[in-house]
Amino acid sequence: MKIFDLGPSPTEKKEENIMDKNYYVTTPIYYPSGKFHIGTAYVTTLADMLKRLKKMQGYDCLMLTGVDEHGQKIEDKAKDENMSPQEYVDVQADAAKKLWKTMKIDYDIFMRTTDEYHCKAVQEIFERFLKQGDIYKGEYEGWYCKPCESYFTETQLVDGKCPDCGREVTKMKEEAYFFNMKKYADRLLEYYNTHPDFIKPEYRKTEMINNFIKPGLEDLCVTRTSFDWGIKVKSDPKHVIYVWLDALTNYITALGYLSDDDSKFKKYWPADVHLVGKDIARFHLIYWPIFLMALDLPLPKTIFVHNWFVMKDGKMSKSKGNVIYPDQLIERYGLDATKYFLIRELPTSQDGLFSPEEFVERYNFDLCNDLSNLLNRTISMVNKYFDGKVPEYKGLQNEVDEDLEKASKDAITNFENEINNFEFANSLKAIWSYISRTNKYIDETSPWVLAKDEESKEKLKSCIYHLVANLREIAILIRPLMEDTSDNMLRQLGMSNNVTWDSLKEYKDIKNTKVIEKGEPIFMRLNAEEEVEAIKDMMKK
Ligand code: ME8
Question: How far is the CA of 280 from the centre of ligand 1 (A)?
Answer without folding.
Answer: 7
